[in-house]
Write a structure and sequence with these properties.
mainly alpha; 2 domains
């Protein structure tokens, strides 16, 4: 564990919560209201700055309509040593972009959108 910052596992759990919350279309305020905490507290959980107690994790899972084991499985998939992907997924535009991309049925159109994004990234 890095003495100067949040534990990587706490960050991975926070990312899993954030991704689930985005997938459900729930704001930080909405999740906070559902479990009885402020949106600021949800921000701290999602950044890994504050640890999520087990009772809070159960309440979060109830609000997100998932099981604790689902979140734990996601944490295991989000390798805490791989910060690059986690940093990208925490960008505010990441979840809505992925959701929109997933709604495109045509694989060819999805590839075209990906190539467009790569082209724009190279030019900026």
């Amino acid at each position: 564990m890095d003495e100067g910052g949040p534990d990587r596992l706490d960050q991975a759990l926070g990312l899993a919560i954030r991704l689930r919350r985005h997938a459900r279309g729930l704001s930080q305020s909405g999740l906070g209201d559902a479990i009885g905490v402020s949106f600021q507290q949800i921000q701290k959980y999602e950044r890994g700055a504050n640890r999520v107690s087990f009772s809070t994790m159960v309440r979060i899972c109830e609000a997100l309509d998932c099981h604790v084991s689902d979140l734990v499985a996601e944490v295991e998939q989000l390798d805490p040593g791989e910060r690059g992907a986690q940093d990208l997924l925490t960008q505010p535009e990441a979840a809505p972009l992925l959701e929109a991309l997933a709604q495109i049925r045509s694989p060819g159109v999805r590839r075209a959108v990906l190539e467009l994004a790569r082209s724009l990234a190279r030019e900026s």
